[in-house]
Amino acid sequence: MKHKPTLSIGLLIAVTLSGTARAGQDSLPHLQTYRQQGIDQFDAQNGQQLWYSTVNERSCTSCHGDNPDNAGKHLKTGKIIQPMALTVNTRRYQDAKKIEKWFLRNCKWTFGRQCSTQEKADILSWLANQ
Amino acid sequence: MSVRDTAASTVKAWDPLIRLFHWSLVFFFLLAFITEDDWLNLHVQAGYAVTLLIGFRLFWGLVGTRTARFSRFVKSPGVVLSHLKGMLTFKASHYLGHNPVAAVMVILLLSSIALVAFSGMVLIASEGHGPLADTLFSSWRGEWMEEIHEFLANFTLLLVFAHVIGVLFSSLLERENLVKAMWTGRKKLRSHWDDFDPGQGEKHET
Amino acid sequence: MKHKATMIIGYTLLASILTFSFYGMGQSLASSNDEYEDHDSDHMEYEEHEQHSWGRQNPAYVEECGSCHLAYPAQLLPTASWQKVMQGLEDHFGENAEVDATTRQALENYLFEASSSSSYRKLFRNLGNRTPLRITELPYFVHEHDEIPSRFIRANDKVSSLSQCNACHQQAERGQFDEDDVIIPGFGRWDD
To answer: What is the DSSP string of B188-200?
Structure first.
């Protein structure tokens, strides 16, 4: 019975921590929007994969760089792009219109097609945890 | 001395229109010069003003008062040279209107300004603007016209400096404030002028 | 009487010329005055740089069209050029710059209106009827930049292209491109 409090506290901490992790991810309003559109599972792993994939020599990293914690640079104009990682750039991903606009443009440019809602949700959930 | 006495010792030399023309031209020419590259709309407007003023001067030079008429003050090269020689040897001679050397400057300035204005109008005509837009002048090469326009404008400025120096020099030589004369229209009454009889003092007719 | 008639004609002629001239002058001053938002009262400073409404840009335009490059002032291209640009946003010089219908409308309203002007503009000198997509193709632009060595631009990392106006023109975002405000990265002021 002496270990009970430690165990409880440990469990409490674990639950809280995992809750926080999920809170960082789920607290993004836009992810809620995707939920409402029928996406029940966010696959951050897939999001990361998509982010680093290359199609016809084009990748998200072409402009955003290899590390989302760092600022990126527009391939043509050299304009600095603020970091994509939410933990670094906490003001990101609040504007739904803006998110959708850039997904539209950049998926088309990178992949030659629009990203599916699942793919967008995956990418966004990965970025939200970076 | 009473006002009447002072008035009596001067005589009318330049009519109001000549004077108004002169100072308006100064104003609009300077305006055009100052606005040259930066305020193009204003610059072009000033150019039009200058053109119209020159046009007026040509008209007035044909039908205007005696001191305004080209036929009265434009002289032969011989006369010009001899007057110039006189000036350079500090021999003062008095003219009610323009002296022969001044006359040369008048012709030079009017011509130069007219050419500046014209080249300016050709320049904007090549862009489809201005009164020469739909004429044959609009096909003249824009880049050349720009150089010409700029050169002529600077040349005119040079003439203006020479003109100012000339006026100051003559003022000193003749002991007459010629700048003031172009403003008030009056010069000192003298017993003799090289261009008009003293007897015709106040008259404006030919 | 002949003399009197001449005087009257003379006065009338000169009076009309001067009225017309001052009116025209007033018009030019008024139209450039309207455009310059920050101008205090009526004081005209002739040393002032070129007066435009370039500094007073539409916020939506700056937001949408300034996210990858300088939001080029609308007045730098003829309206017909802007029409072409807006028709080809999906392939905007190799990039996708699509916008939704509402945004598109707002941008077009702004661009087409701001770029239309009947008054003479030296910017479009020798342009004729052409509608280039690039400001850098305007003959006047070419002329203004033709004395710049390539080591200042193409070979310069910090500049790389004449399209990057704001790399050298320090006041570009305010719509001012005066030579005095040019500082070429790595080289300093432009000394003409």
So the answer is: E--S--SSS-GGG
Cβ distance C68 to A108 less than 8 Å, yes or no, reads: no
Threshold 0.90, pTM exceeds: no
Q: B136 exposed, middle or buried (CB, 10 Å; 0-12, 13-18, 19+)?
A: exposed
SS3 string, A37-97, reads: CCCCCCCHHHHHHHHHCCECCECCHHHHCCCCCCCEECCCCCCEECCCCCCCCCCCCCCHH
CA distance B46 to chain C (A): 7
Which residue out of B54, B127, B145, B203 would a mutagenesis test of the C interface target, given it has the greatest number of C Cβ atoms within 10 Å?
B127
Give the distance from residue B118's alpha carbon to the nearest chain C alpha carbon, in angstroms.
Answer: 17
> Tokens at residue B16, please?
């109001």
Beta carbons of A109 and C163 less than 8 Å apart: no
Least confident of A21-30, B9-18, C67-76: A21-30
- Residue C45 C-alpha, separation from nearest chain B C-alpha, in angstroms: 11
Residues of C in contact with A104 (CB under 8 A): 96, 98
What does the alpha-carbon distance between residue B21 and residue B113 come to, in Å, rounded to a whole number?
Answer: 14
pLDDT reported for residue B125: 82
Residues in chain B: 206
Interchain proximity B42–C120, CB inside 8 Å: no
Report pLDDT digits (tens) over C72-124.
Answer: 998 899 999 999 999 999 899 989 998 989 999 999 999 998 888 756 677 88
Q: What is the mean pLDDT of chain C?
A: 81
In C, which residues are within 8 Å of A108 by CB distance? Answer: 90, 96, 98
A109–C contact, CB cutoff 8 A: yes
ipTM of the complex in this document: 0.85
The closest of C57, C68, C70, C69 to C107, measured between CA atoms, is C57
- Is the Cβ–Cβ distance between B43 and B32 less than 8 Å? yes
* A110: nearest Cα among A79, A64, A72: A64
DSSP state at residue C191? -
| DSSP classification of residue B59 | H
Q: Which residues contact C180 (CB under 8 A, 6 or more apart)?
A: C49
Count of CB contacts below 8 A, A vs C? 31
Interchain touch A–B (≥3 Cβ pairs closer than 8 Å) = no
